[in-house]
Write a structure and sequence with these properties.
Radius of gyration: 17 Å
Largest sheet: 8 strands, mixed
Oligomer: single chain
Distance between the termini: 15 Å
Shape: globular
Structural class: alpha/beta
Order of helices and strands: EHEHHHEEHHEHEHEHEHHH
Helix content: 40-55%
Strand order of the largest sheet: 3-4-2-5-1-6-7-8
Number of helices: 12
């Protein structure tokens, strides 16, 4: 039975999509069965997987969500699950924004994504959900569908402030919708260890949360290789095997698997 992780943060620019993409690839290289779900209408994760024109897709997570809303039978997974480099993924498109608006008026809105992903658990070891940088109905759906949250944090002051709000949302979801929801840990991304601000904020996160929430030992460094690899629709470990970020994501995948026991 697979485990569902949501990679989340209230703020943009914390490397959620980059982390989802690279973590999925690294877990696959470890022999794990992985499904990545693009749950953001910007469809950046879908683009990472090499889909250039997401607007023409008619088999996205948005279409599945609409089918759930309309009580229609879902198509076979073969219709909507794509594969690249051994990693399965469900694409997204701007159509998801239409679904987002409709969800706000829908009874039991938070149960739509769980209804899609639960039947897929037995086929995968890991299901990774990439979310939008907000605390709206889509993020609530993602949290309702997940077992645990990986919180990505860019060691900048505003990103740190957003983490507090995100943590409060996770607690509310746990109390009201998904009592089994846990926090896998905090992953520090886009780290510039040579800067004083990065060092100070990283220490602050560790000191503030290590007694309550796991702070992963792995730190994802900031490097141009990440941006370059995304441009070529490749995980950084494939694009530049010796790049520090690629090695860090491989280390993080191992740490996550080890964390599960």
């Amino acid at each position: 039975m697979g485990k569902i992780y949501v990679i989340g943060s209230q703020k943009g620019g914390t490397a959620k999509t980059t982390t989802t993409f690279n973590l999925a690839y690294c877990l696959r290289k470890m022999g794990k069965r992985v499904l990545a779900v693009d749950f953001d209408s910007q469809a950046n994760l879908t683009t990472c997987f090499g889909v250039e024109d997401t607007g023409v897709l008619d088999d996205t997570i948005g279409h599945l969500m609409m089918a759930q809303i309309e009580d229609m039978k879902l198509p076979s997974p073969k219709k909507y699950i794509r594969t690249k480099d051994g990693v399965d993924f469900i694409p997204s498109s701007i159509y998801l924004s239409v679904v987002d608006a409709k969800l706000r008026l829908e009874m039991g809105a938070e149960k739509m994504l769980p209804g899609i992903l639960e039947p897929l658990r037995e086929k995968y070891d890991y299901i990774l959900i990439d979310t939008c940088p907000s605390l709206g109905t889509l993020t609530i759906n993602a949290l309702a569908a997940s077992d645990e949250v990986i919180i990505t944090v860019n060691p900048q002051l505003l990103a740190m402030m957003g983490m507090q709000d995100f943590l409060r949302t996770v607690v509310k979801i746990r109390k009201r919708i998904n009592p089994g929801l846990g926090i896998a840990g905090i992953l520090m991304t886009m780290c510039e260890p040579r800067t004083k601000l990065c060092r100070v904020l990283t220490e602050e996160v560790t000191e503030s949360f290590q007694e309550q929430i796991r702070v992963f030992e792995t730190r994802i460094p900031s490097t141009v290789k990440v941006g370059e690899s995304i441009y070529y629709s490749l995980p950084v470990a494939e694009y530049s095997p010796k790049a520090s970020a690629g090695m860090a994501y491989r280390k993080f995948a191992k740490e996550l698997v080890s964390y599960e026991g």
